[in-house]
Amino acid sequence: MQSNENILSCTEQVRVRFNETDPLGIVWHGHYIVYFEDGREAFGREHGLTYLDIQKAGYVTPIVKSTCEHFLPLKYGETFRIVTTFINSVSAKLIYRYELFNQEDQLVCSGETIQVFLDNNGGLCLYNPDFFQAWKDKMGL
């Protein structure tokens, strides 16, 4: 169940590095998941929900599901933007949606990740941790 009362997103500019390309000169498909992480980290810095904040509160958030659809290639030296959107859910999880756009503003790739909360003992949290609920309240979610 999702709620879209308030949409939080972040945009990050990235340049394709040489080591991210395959012999054909295009970005190897596995790097798109790394770009998703770049988007999550930028989102966390902008909206006050970084991995360090989560760790400081006594939790970790492993990814339990990821999807990635490719539409156009990216090549070495190109810049692109990652739009990362937080999808609000009543469940104790972090859902992020990603859209990567090339310099011509064409959609290159889209995807989603789902992360769950584990406490310091590795236990799955069935309810929003207090710090996360406080963040959601502060953000109007």
From TrEMBL:
This is 4-hydroxybenzoyl-CoA thioesterase. Keywords: Hydrolase. It comes from the Bacteria. GO terms for molecular function: fatty acyl-CoA hydrolase activity. Coiled coil: none annotated. Belongs to the 4-hydroxybenzoyl-CoA thioesterase family. InterPro entries: 4-hydroxybenzoyl-CoA_TE (IPR050563), HB-CoA_thioesterase_AS (IPR008272), HotDog_dom_sf (IPR029069), YbgC/YbaW (IPR006684). It comes from Chryseobacterium angstadtii.
